User: Fold this.
Amino acid sequence: MLANILLIDDENSLRELLARLIRLEGFEVVQAASLSAARQALAKSRPEIVLCDVKLPDGNGVEFVGELKAGYPDIEIALLTAYGNIPDGVQAMRTGAFDYLVKGDDNNKIIPLLHRMLEKIRLQRKVAQLEKQLGRPLDFDRITGQAPAFLQVVELARKVAPTDTTVLLRGETGTGKEVFAQAIHRSSARKDHAFVALNCSAFSHDLLESELFGHRAGAFTGAMKDKPGLLDEAQGGTLFLDEIGEMPLDLQAKLLRVLETGEFLPVGDTKVRRADVRLLSATNRDLKHDAESGRFRADLYYRLAVFQLYLPPLRERREDIGLLAGHFAAYFSQKMGKKIAELSPETLHCLLAYEWPGNIRELRNVVERAVILASGERIEPSDLPAELQSAPLQNAPARPLSAFSLEAAECLHIQKVLLHTGGNKTEAARLLGIGLTTLYRKIESCGLSF
Assistant:
């Protein structure tokens, strides 16, 4: 049995026909001829999917969507109606319906629709299971960092998350743009719906258009059946377009129409579809410069960049390197069944001295490799790649100090504490028992480059 389905329709013959058709596909079906009967069935059978007629003897299916999602947020619901009504469809999608189908015209779409709904339910269960394993939701709590510039970006992201505003995430490759996009989605009103990501640089022009907008059967060679696009998959949720700067100009025009009208046309189709999605995008390019030079549509750029977030590269937030490295070390140690308690001060020194052109992604890969190689309970420089072992010791004092002077002892102690905290000055000041301003002054006096 694939899933339990509650079918609500007051037309007995049509309901029986649909129920028989759905059972043949391996689903279990419970029937109800009214909303009151449906409420009783919900309490008894707890279905995973609900198919509901719009016009019922004791109520309206569109209004029932909100009631159902409030009481059973994990149940997916689709509406069936004899008369297509765009305002009703829009309202249904906004209140949580998965889709809105017209009877007769869309009978051949019901079984594929049920499978899409079932796939979404399974995906949500996997996400919930992962969240339980992690002990916290996939939101801003997952984002690690204490650098002032980074914390400012997090605060801005928290403020824009509850809105439906488009957000353009800018930053070098590996700075965590998709992690931020997921956190924004998880902190929005759309969090119970899909988060769909697409890398625009990973597809050819035609494939990108089909992936994004979908296509009708026969639209091009090899298109044997209708294929929903990611705009369909993201209905009610969030669509994240990574490397948006790589999108061809003619597809940019189609995306602009989605943002301006909420409508799109699948490839080879003549029927306009509605898109109720929030759009987040990301790039490592200077889109404003590209727009000025004609390599990117200026009108689309200004629609995408209503709210911009710049994620600083790792070399500009060195105080977070030790924190992130410790986080990754703990994660991979647990995953691999090892007992690595810490990174040695010498290892932290190597990490802090490196420029990290691949940013957080590169740091994650380096720590994963180090955990594999580590033979003791802490990671040593010998567990790091050769280029990190030979990185210049940028954090050593810039001027020589007498080995017998009190100042030299103090500078060496401050250096040791900063290495212990991975360059985190706030934590170092706490451990040293001095104010943060005093620590900054001593770092400058000692010539340290943390």
Remarks:
- Residues 185 and 216 are 30 Å apart (CA to CA).
